[in-house]
Amino acid sequence: MNREGKYNVVLIEPSEIIATGISAIIGNNPQFNVTQTSNDPTYYNSGNSDIDIVIINPTVVDYNDRLDIRSWLGAGNTALVALTHSNYEENVLRQYDECIGIYDNAARIIQKLRNAIEENNKSPKNDINELSSRERDILAAVAMGKTNKEIADEFNISIYTVISHRRNISQKLGINSIPGLTVYAIMNKLVDMSDFK
After folding, report:
1. What CATH number does residue 87 fall under?
2. How far apart are CA 79 and CA 55, in angstroms?
3. Contacts by 74-77, CB closer than 8 A, 24 or more apart
4. Share of the chain above pLDDT 70, in %
5. In angstroms, what CA-CA distances link 125 with 26, 57, 90, 104, 122?
């Protein structure tokens, strides 16, 4: 929240028409202030601790690799709101504190922004903390390209236990591909780029 008691909002939306409309709706409310708008998520300055909410159109993120949006943006405990034009998988939307649809009216949009702040304050998202120590170890091994048998031998557990851990990791993170898990492990410093030779 800034000095004037307003929540600062960053909007990442590729459509200028939609970005202008959402910015106008938010700007008309005395509780919120749009500080940045962009069509490029890399423009977002995650080092700016004055940002309370990031509204992002999920289409600007490549979900083929199923990476974690919060880590990718470097959003930390900033509230994340999806701005949706169509339907998305539950695994995608679960990463956000709230979801605004383009057909929501002004009152509903403002209420959803308030809900996002509330939800984020109640339970800040940090998926890496949801993983057990063993799950983090197994995720690192998967990222290093080890097979289930190699992981089982390394940790002295059965292949079935490895498969169970991998299933739990995928469910918790919402990432189902090995490349996606690898990116997640690198971004959360479970493995280092220098480990890949």
Report:
1. 3.40.50.2300
2. 8
3. 74/46, 74/47, 75/44, 75/46, 76/46, 77/120, 77/124, 77/125, 77/126
4. 83
5. 24, 19, 16, 25, 10
Can you say whether residue 117 is alpha, beta or left, with left for phi > 0 and alpha for psi between -120 and 50 degrees?
alpha
2-13 pLDDT, tens digit per residue, is: 667 889 999 999
Q: Domain tally for the chain?
A: 2
Q: What is the pLDDT of residues 60-70, one digit of tens each?
A: 876 554 456 77
Asked whether the beta carbons of 95 and 69 are under 8 A apart, the reply is yes
The encoded tokens of residue 139 equal: 């995720």
pLDDT at 2: 63
Give the residue with greater pLDDT, 21 vs 121: 21
Domain of 181, CATH number, reads 1.10.10.10
Residue 1 lies in a domain: no
Q: pTM of the predicted model, to two decimals?
A: 0.62
What pLDDT is stored for residue 91 in this prediction?
Answer: 65
Q: Are residues 145 and 163 in the same domain?
A: yes
Residue 183 belongs to some domain of the structure: yes
